[in-house]
Design a protein that fits this description.
The structure is a single chain. The protein is 29% helix and 26% strand. The protein contains nine helices and 15 strands. The strands form three sheets. Strands 7, 8, 9, 10, 11, 12, 13, 14 and 15 form a nine-stranded mixed sheet that branches. The chain has a four-stranded antiparallel sheet with strand order 3-2-5-6, with no helix packed on it. β2 and β3 form a beta hairpin. The relative contact order is 0.13.
Length: 273
């Protein structure tokens, strides 16, 4: 906190410094308007929350509260709506099995977005997709409102591995494996070395099932890499991103909250969770 840093550098009396420090800590960590808290808990929109407060449906520490501007401590104060205790979460994390035909965006005038598949609570928490999957690509998508985590996971410096499973028209071969490993040269850039694993070959239909591991995410990259080998991706699914793996029990379009273990695995990115 800038104000606290300024005071810290100029207060000589240690007892005054301690008092300022304690006050600063409470101010910094705890203060939140009641209406903002209620909106964050998906009780309703800002306008709806004001009406609910006027109706006496919200209590703070056992007392009915009608002031939207009341400053509350989300960790110590007990806030109830219609008798039910509300718990505040700063960050939320969702895993989705994104279907084809839905875009990885928060809003769009032409297509359904991944946010349209989530519930009101997730939208109230203002989650967004971490990275993107093409409209015709399906599979693992992480959605969160933790901007620092998203930045870390998408940073080229982190070299976060993403694994895709692709159905290919054409027979992938060992020469293609070597090309992927060396770094395929496209028109506008040279790909970083990647791994190509051939899972199945159907010589009669001249198709392949492959697994591709890359640590970058340029536009249509996987499809373009396969095309550079003279073949075509006919179906593309992302099955992992960093430590997260797609839950195979999720049908296309379904989603769930991350488990505690999955959230813990994200600590490798060194940001507050």
């Amino acid at each position: 906190m800038v104000i606290f840093k300024y005071l810290k550098e100029r207060v000589v009396d240690r007892s005054v410094y301690i008092r300022i420090g304690l006050l600063s800590e409470v101010w910094y960590n705890s203060s939140m308007r009641l209406d903002k808290f209620l909106v964050a808990c998906a009780v309703g929109s800002r306008a709806e929350v004001k009406n609910l407060l006027k109706a006496g449906r919200v209590t703070v520490n056992g007392k009915k509260e009608k002031s939207a501007k009341l400053q509350i401590n989300e960790e110590r104060d007990e806030i109830r709506f219609d008798g039910q205790v509300l718990e505040y979460e700063e960050f939320v994390y969702y895993m989705m099995n994104k279907p084809q035909g839905v875009i990885s965006a928060t809003e769009d005038n032409k297509h359904r977005t991944v946010l349209d598949l989530l519930d009101d609570y997730a939208r109230a928490k203002e989650v967004f997709p971490v990275g993107r999957l093409d409209i015709d690509t399906h599979g693992l998508l992480l959605l969160t409102n933790n901007g620092k985590l998203a930045h870390a996971m998408l940073s080229p410096k982190k070299h976060v591995e993403k694994i895709y499973r692709a159905h290919v028209a054409g027979l992938m071969n060992h020469e293609d494996i070597d090309r992927f490993a060396a770094g395929i040269e496209l028109k506008d850039f040279v790909c970083q070395p990647a791994q190509l694993k051939i899972l199945e070959i159907n010589e009669e239909k001249e198709t392949s099932l492959v697994e591709i591991i890359i640590a970058e995410g340029k536009f249509h990259q996987v499809k373009r890499m396969v095309a550079a080998c003279g073949k075509e991706v006919t179906d593309l699914e992302r099955i992992s991103m960093g430590p997260l793996c797609l839950d195979t029990t999720l049908a296309l379009g379904e989603w769930r909250r991350l488990t505690d273990a999955e959230i813990l695995s994200l600590e490798i990115f060194g940001v507050e969770l």
